[in-house]
């Protein structure tokens, strides 16, 4: 929904940086990195020019999803402290401009990825854009506390797309990378929701913290983290794993489990007194968690040509 009262003033002229902010550049960085890892971890090499162009179009597709999301969510962004300064609620870009940009970039990215890589990769990119912009943003986000669980799949597709860019086909390995992101997403966002709960209350978004309360959310974080740790460590013994990945996974998941346990084992009074420091620390750790896991997968793939990576 994009009916917001804080519309751009006639005096303000949108700058290039305002339109770039619509693309959610921080999210785009994660998309690009995981897509690159998926492409380079594949058993088929890609010409550098083709690989660069293909990843560029994946990034543009991710940006298109971000613009469409900001267009649709402009009304709730305006009442949430974390998002109030985004271009549309801040009065810097018109909602219609964001919609036009998102649609145009979606078409461009899918068409050009089909030309630079293959139709299957382009089809997966189109599916990802639709899943994020329509299934998650327009439906799940405002309909169910499982919004981030199911909707998290949108952010998990990039390594699959990267793998398909290289191979033109599916395999089990990219779906393991997909599963890592998919299982990581709920505890990552629920930790954010714990110390930003008032935002979701104000915006009437049915995040788990709003519908089931903080104690239930903490329990869910613990359960998902345990399942994630099993998956992450188990991935070390697959074709994309190896000694480097195993050591990385053991250390990171030990820290992640410890953080999730501390969240689960705390009481509400303590949480209010220390301003949710435990949740904040866990959230920050979750940012490094995913990056380092995929960095380890990339390291394993980079060493394999010299017979050093993997098992």
Structure description:
The protein has two domains: 158 residues, Tetracycline Repressor, domain 2 (Orthogonal Bundle), CATH 1.10.357.140; 141 residues. Helix content is 74%, strand content 0%. It contains 16 helices and no strands. The longest helix has 27 residues. The termini are far apart.
What's a quick, concise take on this entry?
With 311 residues, this protein is mainly alpha-helical. The chain is 74% helix and 0% strand.
Unreliable parts: none
The CATH architecture of the largest domain can be named as: Orthogonal Bundle
CATH topology of the largest domain: Tetracycline Repressor, domain 2
What integer is the average pLDDT? 91
Number of domains: 2
Using only CA atoms, what is the Rg?
A: 20 Å
Number of β-strand runs: 0
Number of helices: 16
Helix content: over 70%
The 3D shape can be described as flat
First-to-last CA distance: 51 Å
CATH class of the largest domain: Mainly Alpha
Order of SSEs: HHHHHHHHHHHHHHHH
CATH homologous superfamily placement of the largest domain: UbiA prenyltransferase
* Biggest pleated sheet: none
Tell me the β content: under 5%
Structural class based on helices, strands and sheet pairing:
mainly alpha
């Amino acid at each position: 929904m994009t009916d917001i009262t804080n519309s751009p003033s006639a005096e303000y002229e949108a700058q290039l940086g305002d339109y770039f902010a619509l693309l959610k550049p921080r999210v785009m960085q994660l998309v690009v990195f995981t897509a690159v890892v998926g492409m380079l971890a594949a058993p088929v090499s890609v010409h550098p020019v083709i690989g660069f162009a293909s990843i560029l179009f994946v990034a543009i597709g991710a940006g298109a999803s971000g613009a469409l999301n900001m267009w649709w969510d402009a009304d709730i962004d305006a009442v949430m402290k974390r998002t109030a300064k985004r271009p549309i609620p801040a009065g810097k870009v018109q909602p219609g401009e964001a919609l036009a940009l998102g649609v145009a970039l979606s078409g461009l990215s899918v068409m050009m990825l089909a030309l630079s890589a293959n139709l299957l990769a382009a089809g997966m990119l189109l599916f990802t854009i639709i899943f994020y912009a329509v299934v998650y943003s327009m439906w799940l986000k405002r309909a169910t506390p499982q919004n981030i669980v199911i909707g998290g799949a949108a952010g998990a597709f990039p390594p699959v797309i990267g793998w398909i860019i290289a191979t033109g086909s599916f395999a089990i390995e990219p779906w393991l990378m997909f599963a890592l992101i998919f299982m990581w997403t709920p505890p990552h966002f629920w930790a954010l929701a714990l110390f930003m709960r008032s935002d979701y209350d104000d915006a009437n978004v049915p995040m788990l913290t709003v519908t089931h309360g903080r104690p239930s959310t903490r329990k869910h974080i613990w359960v998902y983290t345990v399942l994630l740790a099993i998956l992450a460590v188990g991935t070390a013994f697959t074709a994309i794993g190896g000694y480097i990945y195993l050591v990385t996974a053991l250390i990171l998941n030990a820290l992640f489990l410890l953080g999730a346990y501390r969240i689960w084992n705390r009481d509400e009074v303590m949480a209010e007194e220390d301003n949710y420091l435990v949740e904040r620390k866990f959230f920050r750790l979750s940012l490094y968690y995913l990056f380092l896991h995929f960095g380890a997968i990339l390291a394993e793939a980079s060493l394999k040509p010299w017979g050093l990576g993997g098992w």
